[in-house]
Write a structure and sequence with these properties.
Layout (H helix, E strand, L loop, with lengths): L1 E4 L6 H8 L3 E4 L5 H7 L5 E4 L7 H6 L5 E4 L9 H6 L3 E3 L6 H17 L1 H9 L17 E5 L3 H11 L4 E5 L5 H7 L2 E2 L2 H7 L2 E4 L13 H4 L6 E5 L8 H10 L2 E6 L19 E3 L8 H19 L8
Parallel strand pairs: 1-2, 1-3, 3-4, 4-5, 6-7, 6-9, 7-8, 9-10, 10-11, 11-12
Helix pairs in contact: 1-12, 5-7
Bound molecules: nicotinamide-adenine-dinucleotide and D-malate (MLT).
Length: 310
């Protein structure tokens, strides 16, 4: 079998696959046209989030049997097109949970105190202590929308800041939420009572535009919103408008509707907006874990063992 590894996935991935007898080619700078030319040579393709494995690529991948995602979100892969061709789609649940949760906590602290903005001004020689009046996290209500692996780790960490945590996730039973010490709640209550909202759902038809003009209307004036999940869960034009109006006091995002973020994005001009370039999982530990995990899972699949992450 031949595997094509893309998107700068750590070299451990290829090393482990080679030990399973797979011929590996790692291409970190392959253009879409380049991918279209070579995809027919491979049974396995492994990506992070930059490369889109859409219906066109799947159609051209005549030998493809498995699409591996070194990460969680599979929204860059056309699962329906893959399934129609009996191609397995496999991700690496849990591999980057801690890193994504820690980045989220950093964003929550940043929206409370506008740390990046204060840094930029201080670096520019402006010493204005009155301007950067923040808020404490202690005693505030944090709504976590999506209580899977990352949402739970965020809850554990933000509890230690003394926050009251509300959780909305239709798949989570009450008894489980109680073991983590959080309250399951309706989406409406989360929107109405939260001082801070953080998103941890996948992007799908039920979550696209979950934060939009209509739902921001239900929120408190001065709410702070963090999106380290997926672009598209927040309507960016609506968020920019509500930041400008001051209804939303501050917001942060690691992920965007279009990546790389377009220089025309209204978010670039919105006040109190903090952004990072989809790096919540970019730690030495997380990248090592997901690269190893996907390779081991593929090895198990080849040797007929039970497969996970499919
Ligand atoms: P997970 O599958 O463990 O958790 C997702 C949770 O969302 C599940 O519990 C599910 O029930 C819930 N959910 C689904 N639809 C919902 C809805 N409409 N409303 C409320 N909850 C809903 O996944 P995870 O590992 O916690 O990751 C969550 C998301 O974070 C991923 O899908 C991925 O898109 C994103 N992510 C981003 C980064 C990054 O680098 N920024 C890193 C890792 C993951
Ligand atoms: C994910 O879904 O795992 C994230 O997008 C992280 C990544 O792939 O870098």
């Amino acid at each position: 079998m031949r595997a094509l590894i893309l998107d700068n996935i750590e070299v451990f991935c290829g090393e482990i696959l080679r030990k399973s007898g797979i011929e590996v080619k790692q291409e970190n700078k392959l253009s879409r046209d380049g991918l279209k030319e070579v995809i027919s040579n491979y049974e396995i393709v492994i990506v992070r989030s930059a490369t889109k494995i859409d219906a066109e690529i799947i159609e051209l991948g005549k030998k493809l049997r498995l699409i591996g995602r070194a990460g969680v979100g599979v929204d860059n892969i056309d699962i329906e097109a893959a399934t129609n061709k009996s191609i397995l789609v496999m991700n690496t649940p849990g591999g980057n949970t801690v890193s994504a949760a820690e980045h989220t906590c950093g964003m929550l602290l940043s929206v409370a105190r506008l740390i990046p903005q204060a840094h930029a001004e201080t670096a520019a020689g402006i010493w204005d202590r009155k301007k950067w009046m923040g808020v404490e996290l202690e005693g505030k209500t944090l709504a976590i929308l999506g209580f899977g692996k990352i949402g739970q780790e965020v809850a554990r960490r933000m509890t230690s800041f003394g926050m009251r945590i509300l959780v909305y996730d239709p798949m989570i039973p009450d008894e489980f939420a109680q073991t983590i010490g959080v309250n399951l709640s309706s989406l409406e209550k989360c929107f109405q009572e939260a001082d801070f909202i953080t998103l941890h759902t996948p992007l799908n038809s039920s979550t696209r535009g979950l934060v939009s003009k209509k739902t921001i209307e239900m929120m408190k004036t001065g709410v702070r919103i963090v999106n380290c999940a997926r672009g598209g869960i927040v309507n960016e034009a609506d968020l920019a408008e509500e930041l400008t109006k001051g209804k939303v006091a501050a917001a942060a995002a690691d992920v965007f509707e279009k990546e790389p973020l377009s220089q025309d994005s209204p978010l670039l001009k919105a006040p109190h907006f903090i952004m990072t370039p989809h790096i919540a999982a970019s730690t030495i530990e997380a990248q090592s874990k997901v690269a190893t995990q996907i390779a081991l899972q593929i090895g198990d699949w080849i040797s007929g063992k039970e497969v996970v992450g499919v």
